[in-house]
Amino acid sequence: MQATSYTYDPDTRCGSVLLDDGTPLPFDAAAFDAGGLRLLRVGQRVRIRTEGEGEARRVVFVTLQTFPDPERG
After folding, report:
1. Smaller CB count within 10 Å for the chain: N or C?
2. Are residues 64 and 21 in contact, defined by beta-carbon separation less than 8 angstroms?
């Protein structure tokens, strides 16, 4: 799934993305670290994986479009 980075704090490695429909979803340091990133700029297009539904939906993986997703091959 694609999204756009919306917020990012380099100290905590946490932030949020906006889905293409405008829905914001937060991500934590574990999701950031899973993607192999060192830095994220607001406005970058990213590839994400989510788990859960509704209010429980959360980002579990965030990376750049050109980076591999080890679970997806």
Report:
1. C
2. no
